[in-house]
Structure formats: structure tokens, C-alpha cells
Amino acid sequence: MERELALEIVRVTELAALASAPWMGRGDKNSADEAATLAMRAMFDSVSIRGTVVIGEGEMDEAPMLYIGEQVGNAEGPEVDVAVDPLEGTDIVAKGLNNALSVIAVAGKGNLLHAPDMYMEKLAVGPALVGKVCIEDPIEVTLEKAAVALNKNISDLTVMILDRVRHESTIKTLRKVGVRIKFLSDGDVAGAMAPAFPEAGIDLYVGSGGAPEGVLAAAALSCLGGEIQGRLMPANADEFQRCLQMGIDNPYKVLTMEDMIGTEDVIFAATGVTPGEILGGVRYLADDRAETDSIVMRAKTKTIRFIRSLHFLPNKEVLHKVRKLQASSEPSDRMIRKLTKEMEQAEFSQSAKEASVITNG
User: Fold this and answer.
1) What pLDDT is stored for residue 344 in this prediction?
2) Which cofactors does it use (predicted)?
């Protein structure tokens, strides 16, 4: 993949974050997610890829845009798999909490796992624990191995886990063993990434969360030198069958990084919507400006870029169109068709002007 693609991708996450940020604390997670999705889908038209969404907002009959199988990009670049979460942490934004992100991962065609929308058991670690722990071990054994590898007392380890009823048994064990626990209200991707950032102070991320988010986290950790192991948790026969339909022959096997993202290059980009351990959130400044905090990484080079951008909001045409469409109360599928048509007309008009300059010059 072209290295310039990394900066193109982060422009998409920036706009999705800017679109959803005004909904922070307003108790409307659906509108926040809709705004991010509309903005992300529109911005993808400017990205030089021939992309296929393999992880997105749902199946074609469930989502009007960024659905699994949808073609994105301007059809002029490399053929790639695309995984997106326009707003990872919809409840976070609605409640005004921390760690909401807009996230994209891009890899060569056929490399990203088509993860079904179900729970995945996860164990994520930073570079110091890669290859040192195993998701199949009891959690007590995992903690003992981690303490030895990190040269720490078990009581000095910090484990991050989603604060969920389904984790009650694991939490009891963690407390019995005596580790420090940092609870996460939402934001599974940010949680899995945290052990790879020393400043976050997290040694391991454990528990279950969404399978699609596991693949996005694997993309990020491949760039950061960390590791995630996963195991799907089909809840019934229908979910088991769905795994088989998506090409996963053994839904209960341990999924490695290679299973989730392949062995080739991966680009990962995320922009903070609300502040978190890794990224700051969208900040509104004087004079119609807003600040975004993003990270964009590439597995092949292990280059990690933190990008602080200042945006002059009156010039964000897509952003204004998204807000206008949301205010119109039109169905989402009609919104995206209208927005896409307007973008195409704008691009055609600009191309015509450039051609006129060349012809008359």
C-alpha cells in the first residue's frame, strides 16, 4: 500500500470525529453514530483506494452505508479490505464519558478477518508480553506469567476490563489474586490498545467484547508491536452457523494476529472524539476552530504518528451538509444518497473548472 494512504485515512477519521463530537453528553447515541457514519462515508469518496468494507455498520439490509461488502474509495488506488467503526463508543459520547474514537483499519485485499457481530474473548498485551501469555491459560496463570515477564509483583499489575455483568466471575478472580483493576465503561478498541502505551499504565486487557472491535485492535497492535489473542463466543446455533458462513471453520479456535489481519501491511488510524488514555477528544476553540487528536500507524514501517490538527469549521463543507441532513429528519439511506450526489456534483464542477483553466490557459 502507498504510504500516502495513511494520511488520507486519518482525514476520514478526523471528519467523523468532528461530526459526532457535538452530540457529546446529549443522550442521543443514535444521532452521534449517524453523524460519524455519514461523514466517514462521504469522506471515503476522496480516498485513493478500491476498498471493500469487511467490518462495518452491519449487513446491507441492516445498514444504509458502510455496510459489509460496500465499495468505498475513488476506485483509483490499491485494492484493499477496510474495517471501520465510525464511532467506537456511542454510549460514551451520549453520556459524555471517556475513550470514544473514530477508527479505520486498511489492509491488502483478503487479509482482514470477516469477524461476525458477536462477542469475542480477548487477551491484549504490549510488546513486553508478546509470546509470553496465552488466552487458553486460567487468568491466574496468565497473571503469574505476566508478573515474571515484567519483573513486577502481581499486586503491581494493572488489568483493564469492561465493566459488565458478564465479567463478574473474572473480576472476582482478579480481586482475589490482588491485581489493580481499571474498569472501562465502553470503548473496546481503546482498551485493547492501552497495554501498548506505557503512559496508559495498563499491563493487560482481558474479558470479552465485540469481535469486529477485536480485528480493529489487532490492526492497531500490529503497528504498536503488541499482541491480541481472541476466541469467538457464538451464543447459539444461529451465531455458530454465521461463523461458518463467513468462512470460519472452527468458531472456537484461538485467533492469532495472523488470523485476524494476515501477514501483510496494515494501516490503522483513529481520532479521539472524547478524551481518553491514548488520545484527546475534539476541543472547540475560539474563532470557529476545533482541535482534533489522532494517531495513524503502519505495520510495515512501525511508524507511529500523533497528529494534532486545527480545523477551521466554516470550510468543512461535508460537515455542514451532514448537520443539515440530520436536521432534515430524512431516513439515513436517503441522507447518504443526497450527500454522495452533492459530493459528486462538487467534484465534477471542480474538474470542469480545472479543465477550463487548462483549455483557456
Assistant:
1) 57
2) Mn(2+)
